[in-house]
Amino acid sequence: MRARRRALDKLDEERLLRLVAKGDRGAFDELYRRTAPWLAVRLRRRCADEQIVAEVMQETFLAVWRAAGAFAGSVVGGSAVGWLWTIAARRLVDAFRRRAHHAEPPAAAAHLANAPAAEDEALAAAIGGDVGDALRRLAPELRAVLQATVLDGLSVRETAVLLRLPEGTVKTRARRARIAMRKELA
Asked: Is the Cα torsion angle 28, 93, 141, 44 positive or negative in sign?
């Protein structure tokens, strides 16, 4: 048992995911042990409601267990953790949409910090070049609206619920963000 655990401990996430695709419960447990902590932190950065985060975590790892073959069979040179985050981010967007559909703000909605998050900075750096520079120079409140509407694919209404803003404010900030980006990139 220990030898098996040590063997799994030496594998990277992509190889673990390929074993999960074959139904290997030990590989799934190891993948969960490695990825669940950072995934939860990332989700909490976008959503302060622990109940939603817990639901998204559960839905994400259930999807990984069921669909690991989709990664293992189709991705060449892809990142397992990137694939995992994509699943989690989509589940989080779905959770926000369910909340927005009921037109009630979440009990503990995500709050915005005045300083940009490390994730926002990493995103801007990953985009790179002039677009990344323009994103870094955006005011945090404009960047938050841009991230929710463009990158996360939320509607104006869903963004309003998430950011606890009136829909008109979301529309205004989205317009200001687009104008600022155009000026920066011109």
From this structure: negative
Distances (CA, A) of 126 to 76, 153, 158: 20, 19, 26
Q: Give the pLDDT confidence of 59-101 residue by residue, as tens digits.
A: 999 999 998 888 854 544 558 888 888 899 889 988 888 877 6
Question: Is 128 in contact with 75 (CB distance < 8 Å)?
Answer: no
- The 3 state secondary structure assigned to 74-128 is HCCCCCHHHHHHHHHHHHHHHHHHHHHHCCCCCCCCCCCCCCCCHHHHHHHHHHC
What per-residue string of b and e applies to 6-27 under the rule 16 or more CB within 10 Å gives b?
eebeeeebbebbbbbbeebeeb
Q: What is the pTM of this model?
A: 0.55
Output the six-digit token pair for 115: 């300083």
| Structural tokens at position 169 | 């404010």
Burial class (CB in 10 A: 0-12, 13-18, 19+), 179: exposed
How far is Cα 146 from Cα 184, in angstroms, rounded to an integer?
15
Domains of the chain from N-terminus onward: 1-111 (1.10.1740.10), 112-186 (1.10.10.10)
